[in-house]
Amino acid sequence: MNKFLTVKDVSDIDRLILQALEYKTFPFKDRTLGHGKRIGLLFFNPSMRTRLSTQIAAKNLGMDPIVLNVGQEGWALEFADHAIMNGSTVEHIRDAAPVLGQYFDILCVRTFPKLLSCEEDEGEKVMNAFLKLSGVPIVSLESTTRHPLQSLTDLITIRENFHEKRKPKIVMTWAPHIKAIPHCVANSFAEWVIAEGNADFTIAQPKGYELSEKYTRGAKVVTDQASALEGADFVYVKNWSSYEQYGKILGDHPEWMLTEKSLEKAPHAKVMHCLPLRRNVELSDEILDGHRSLLTKQAANRVCAAQSVLAHILRTIG
Ligand code: CP
């Protein structure tokens, strides 16, 4: 694997999950694998879990990660081809990316969508520029369409917490939010669950909030949360803005907040969310502080997920 931007970059999901679980038990088993290799983490947008877990994962493999908050500390970058740079941008990505490729053996990049233009966000301008111009493997720390390290983590967490000899019933349910939120986590979760092909998978959202079929083809998509949740083993809670009316909030729908009452017909359901979240808007206190919540375990698994991906890349580049 010489890049990690989508599930399509992974030839064997199962192997990546099993390797991650092994790193969870033995985090230092490959402590020299990354010796002499440098990894740069570039953040155009904020992060807590992704930033820290990727640094810990890199250190577990013997690498020395360096973080640059490009959005706050770096020069304002220009991405437009043939731009006449007489405005606010200071450096062109054509000049910056090759320099970063000289400093680092692996580059990890986080960049959020603006949610103004579907075409622009799906173009993955920032991630593709680094891919094309840096000359080194690129790892997505969340892009304008996907969050693959989060999704790998989510599959690891489901694998760890399901012990039946049948496919788990997984429901991803839309949740209310006060802001317009990107589709990345939801797109990516759907894409990974479908690619793994080992679940009875339903996506529930209010009418108008259907995700792009590009990511959800193969899932059952419904607008009735109550019936979707019946018998669920895992409930993945996430807000996203409308895709059809791109980036818009169409309605508050407070009744979609997950509570114990919502799970009356899913007595064994475990609840997941990528964090950060708005308590008592997206998810109720009773769920978050109760026996169903996998959220802390899920966030902890960000380390072994990132370690599995970085190890795979290190073995590829040698
Ligand atoms: N889940 C997640 O990506 O968290 P951060 O935004 O804190 O990195």
Question: How does this structure look, described?
Answer:
The protein is of the alpha/beta class. It contains 12 helices and 12 strands. The strands form 3 sheets. A 5-stranded parallel beta sheet has the order 1-7-6-2-3, with helices on both faces. A 5-stranded parallel beta sheet has the order 10-9-8-11-12. Strands 4-5 form a two-stranded parallel ribbon. Helix 8 (184-196) links the parallel strand 8 (169-174) and strand 9. The radius of gyration is 20 Å and the shape is globular. The termini are close together. The model has no long low-confidence stretch (mean pLDDT 97). Bound molecules: phosphoric acid mono(formamide)ester. Phosphoric acid mono(formamide)ester (CP) binds at residues 47-50, 142, 150, 274-276.
Terminal residue distance: 11 Å
CATH topology of the largest domain: Rossmann fold
Bound molecules: phosphoric acid mono(formamide)ester
Element-level helix/strand string: EHEHEHEEHEHHEHEHEHEHEEHH
CATH superfamily of the largest domain: Aspartate/ornithine carbamoyltransferase
Quaternary assembly = single chain
**What's the CATH architecture name of the largest domain?**
3-Layer(aba) Sandwich
CATH class of the largest domain: Alpha Beta
Task: Name the shape in a single word.
Answer: globular
Chain-averaged pLDDT = 97
- Tell me the helix content: 25-40%
What keyword list fits this structure?
binds phosphoric acid mono(formamide)ester; five-stranded parallel β-sheet; 318 residues; single chain; alpha/beta; 12 helices; Rossmann fold; globular
